[in-house]
Amino acid sequence: MTTSLPAAVCEAFDRFITTEYTTIDRHGQPITWPVTPYHHREEGCVDITTGLGYPKKAYDARANPKVALLFSDPTGSGLDDPPMVLVQGIGDMDDRDLEANRDRYWAESYEKLPGVRDMHPPKFLRGMLTWYYTRLYVHVRPERVYIWPKGDVTAEPELLDSHVEEVRSGHVEEPDIALEPPEGGTPVWDRRMDELGERYRSGVLSIVAPDGFPFSVRVPIDVDPSARLVRLGAEAVGVPVHPGRACLTVHEHGPEFEWQRNFQVRGDLVERDGDWTLVPHKLVGGFELPPGSIISKYRVNLAKMMRFRKIAKRELAKR
Fold first, then answer.
1. What is the SS3 string spanning 172-209?
2. Residue 3: which pLDDT band, with cuts at 50, 70 and 90?
3. In this predicted model, what pLDDT tens digit does every residue of 118-142 receive, in sequence order?
4. Is there a contact between 248 and 260 (Cβ–Cβ < 8 Å)?
5. Rounded distance, CA 284 to CA 36, Å?
């Protein structure tokens, strides 16, 4: 049960508006997106959800149930100096009752995200947004928990193993697996990468640890556009850094989630001149709701909404 974890950890589960959720795709690429966590103490899990029109977050967990949740952005939580918490766990995709999932999402999001209440359309129009309101859930059961007090990645994290509901030996006991090497190739540069180090002074770095679980941590970032590199600051303690495929995710949101921005950069984590750097290969934009009117938010996402609608229709046809 997650109730056996320290109070500060459970408080983060309950009160953080976003958590950085990481899956590993079939190519061995870690992929991290900010999502809203829903902590269910009685069931001993933290749930996340995604729309039927963009189901990859759930389908990747079904294919490889080793997932991670990082609690590193306390915006809107009301907590002062909370710890940064990494959960490595087993994800269980739930698509057994899509109607119940839709009703559950409506109730839970309405309670946890007051800033989005005014953005919901009237009930008679929600049928046009099946791609969004029809939900897939992933129940994440914690197996291992890392805690960095006050979010200080330069300090030794406390390691808990909640799989057996107690602190075990304090070290990873899973057997090592063969990890995907760096992909290689010419680095790419997207204009939004210029926001790294300016709008976003830190980001969430995700890699695949030797035991096969995703490992995520928030680190300072510095951009070198001329070299097309993102340098990662701070000597993070307890992070199993190694050359390989990585994901750097940045996001921000209002204190009541009345707006939000996010994108991620996928590439190779390599060591250059004694520093760990990310060689970018692909920038992927998320579903964003930037500050502005409801109409402007819909206008920005119109192309994505049309694509998500097609995907949802295809998914429903399969069922």
1. CCCCCCCCCCCCCCCCCCCHHHHHECCCECEEEEEEEC
2. confident
3. 777 766 666 778 999 999 999 999 9
4. no
5. 19
Q: What pLDDT digit, counting tens, does each position of 17-47 carry?
A: 999 999 999 999 999 999 999 999 989 999 9
The rounded distance, in Å, linking the Cα atoms of 122 and 211 is: 47
Burial of 306 (0-12, 13-18, 19+ CB in 10 A): exposed
Q: Identify the CA nearest to 57 among candidates 221, 264, 280, 254.
A: 264
**CA 172 – CA 189 distance, rounded (Å):** 36
Average pLDDT of span 90-114: 93
Domain boundaries, the chain: 2-318
DSSP result, 110-150: HHH-GGGGGGSPPGGGGGGGHHHHSEEEEEEEEEEEEEEGG
Neighbouring C-beta atoms of residue 310, cutoff 10 Å: 12
Question: How many residues does this entry show for the chain?
Answer: 319
Confidence of residue 173 (pLDDT cuts 50, 70, 90): low
User: Can you tell me the distance from the alpha carbon of 122 to that of 105, in angstroms, rounded to the nearest whole number?
Assistant: 16
Nearest CA-CA partner of 141 in 212, 96, 211, 93: 93
CATH superfamily entry for domain 2-318: Electron Transport, Fmn-binding Protein; Chain A (2.30.110.10)
